[in-house]
Predict the structure.
Amino acid sequence: MAIGHAFIELESVDSTNNYAMAGAVSGALPHGTLVFAHDQWAGKGQRGRQWTSQPGENIILSAVLEPVVLPFTAGFALSVAVALACHDLYSHYAGSEATSIKWPNDLYWNDRKAGGILIENHFKGDQWLYAIAGMGININQVEFPPTARNPVSLRQITGKTFNSLQLARELGAFLDKRYAELVAGEAGLQLRQYNERLYGRGREVRLKKENAVFRTVVEGVSARGELLTKDVLERRFTFGEVEWIIEGPTRP
């Protein structure tokens, strides 16, 4: 079934990922179901952070995926496919030149965060039963909490107001296309496309590891999801090992 064949619209929920996972495990929500919420009061971000969003302003969307045809080692490949789908949508409206994917799975416009992805998985042994792809993308919000890291929305970029629900449906169509490519064996091509859209690629950036901040040049991302950089050494970093230090956000 195509992603988006079923579309559930919720006024308010603790987390669309929680709702989608519970429905997937119970059998109530089959592969391809999209869960959209106008308001999410306990949204989850990466590394235990909370994803906050003003009610009715943004895309809060989770997709139920049953990746049983994929090896359980393809977790990062799925993350790449989802990130590309988010990039497909945002770059269509915000422009492809300024839109990028920040490793491992943030959506960026120039040096500002436009969205994030959180994929939660359910395994039985080595069988990958469910993957819930949660996507939060800033659309119409113009005021953000002071704790938000360099946020930006589509409205701030373009000066236009958008229908977040309609854009969520469009995102579902992009995700269906990217997921179909992944299942068809295009993981290598998608990784190349991900690297072409990689935030900071070819540039010197600042990273923080433990208490040390250092400068290094972003080379790309490996098939295993490692960030590859080069300075006096060639380096590989796994997810969670380093933190980006973003300098001087560009204002729209």
Q: What stands out?
A: Residues 75-94 form the longest helix (20 residues).
